[in-house]
Amino acid sequence: MRIKVELETKEETLPLNYREKFLSYLKKIFEDHNRDIYQALYSSGANYKPLCSAIYFRPEVEIVKTGITLKSKRFVATFTTRDVMMGVHLINALLSRRNHWAPLADTGNQLKITAVTKVREHEMTDTAAFRILSPVVVRDHDQKEGRDWYLTFEDKLFEAVWKRNLKSELRTVLGRDAGHDVDGLNIKPIQLRKTVVLCYSIYLPCTIGTFALEGEPYLLDYLYKSGLGSKRSLGFGCLDIL
C-alpha cells in the first residue's frame, strides 16, 4: 500500500535532522490511536518494521548547513508498506490527526495533516526503473567489533553488502531462503550520486538518484513496497517507479 500525506508547518524553519523529529511525531500518532500497533512497531524487541517513508519539500525550500527554510510551510510524506493491514491502521491513525496541530519534538514548530490519500500502485514485471524518494542507506555491521560502516554506490562492496542484508531480511519476512533470486538481481545505475544526511547526530553517507533493476517480479515488488537498504522506517530507502 502507498499513502500520500500532505502537511503544513506553523513556522518556516526545520532542523536538518527532521527525519528523527518526524518519526517522533508519527510514533505519537500511533500511540494515541492504537497502542497495540505502536508496541508492535516500536517496542524494544521490534527490529523489523514493515513501513518505509520519504519526505518531499514543496517549493520554495532552502537547505543550508544550519537548517531548512520551508517558505511554503508545506511538505508531502509518502509511506509504503507491503502489509495491507498496517497500511489500513496507518491511514486511520493519520486521519485521526487531520486538521489538528501537534508539536514537532524539540523544534518549536508544529505540524498539521491536511490530506491523506491512498495512491495506486504499479504492477511489477521482471524489470523496472526506480527513482529514489529518500536516500538509500546500506549498513555493513561488524558484530565482533560492534561497529557500523555505511556504503554508497561508489563503494565496491555496496551491492554485495546490500544483497547480503536483503537475504537475511527475506529469511525473516518470507520464512524461506531467497538467496539464489537475490544473487540474480541486476542493478544498473541510471543517474546515481552520493549524499550525506544528518541522522541522530551522525552524518550518514547515502545514495540518491535513479536506477534500473532486473530480477524476479516478487523481489522487485518487495523492494517497491518495502524500500531498499537500512533505516527505512526512519525515512530512508523509499522508492517509486520512474
Automatic annotation (TrEMBL):
Gene3D superfamilies tied to this protein: 3.30.70.1890, 3.30.70.1900
Tagged with keyword Flavoprotein: no
Domain of life: Bacteria
UniProt source species: Syntrophobotulus glycolicus (strain DSM 8271 / FlGlyR)
Molecular function terms from GO: hydrolase activity, acting on ester bonds
Name of this protein: CRISPR-associated protein Cas6
UniProt xrefs under InterPro entries: Cas_Cas6_C, CRISPR-assoc_prot_Cas6, CRISPR-assoc_prot_Cas6_N_sf
Segments forming domain CRISPR associated protein Cas6 C-terminal: 121-241
CDD domains in alphabetical order: Cas6_I-like
Lineage: Bacteria, Bacillati, Bacillota, Clostridia, Eubacteriales
